[in-house]
Amino acid sequence: MIELEFQILSDRREGLLVDLGRLVVASGYTLLRQRLSQDQRGTWLTMRVRGPAEHQSSLEEGLATHARVRSFETALAGVGHAPTPPLVTPAPVATPAPVPAPAAGSPDLPADVRQVEAVLPQLARDYPKVYPWLLTLEHAVADPARKPSLLLAGQRTGTWIYKRDYAMGAKLPLVDAIKRIALPALRELVAAECRDGQFHIQNSPLCPPGGHTGCHFFAGYLEGVLNGAMGRHDVEVHRLHCRSDGAPACVIDVSD
Predict the structure, then answer these.
(1) How far is residue 205's CA from residue 183's CA, in Å, rounded to a whole number?
(2) Which stretch of 71-85, 131-145, 176-190 has the lowest confidence by average pLDDT?
(3) What is the model's pTM?
């Protein structure tokens, strides 16, 4: 068992503790103490909870995608207080702050977890109208972190959609998971077909011809959905072709 301390920023105070308390309990944790405060940025909720260490990631994922949560920070209780999270307000897509291009040959950076977690509540709130927030995410991170950040956002969104819409069903083999869950879920976002384990995505808004590829989000999304549907964590998802590179459609291959 571990004790965690969360500091959470929300827009409204009313019902916040009740809403997030349900999430804490559903994740197998016990709420030990809590404190609410208010400043010009919004409502702060500090919670100390105790529960199984193996459920920490699912609790954090639930907070990251909760419609009431704008941002949050986590710390192990007794190790140090969670730092006060900054106000995270994504800029409008039409006027993003430019990010300098990396030098040629620069390797990818790890995903910008803070920026991804900041945008997840907006994705959940407006789903399936996610593209403005994904474009905001693309412009909010350094270019070498863009692909892994889109991949992580896709994984977290796919996992959330599976739990929200499909988790009551039995675990499925890959062929059935694609037919019954992954393809219908993907079609909520974009026009798509699947042939022989390959998803063909038409006119992806994230992959303009001659621009950056956004297929990493769809690859992560399919990975998150299928891992949930199959009860595994080893589904292999690979990008094969992208509209941004001149292909007629984006193609993503899935195998187990």
Answers:
(1) 18
(2) 71-85
(3) 0.61
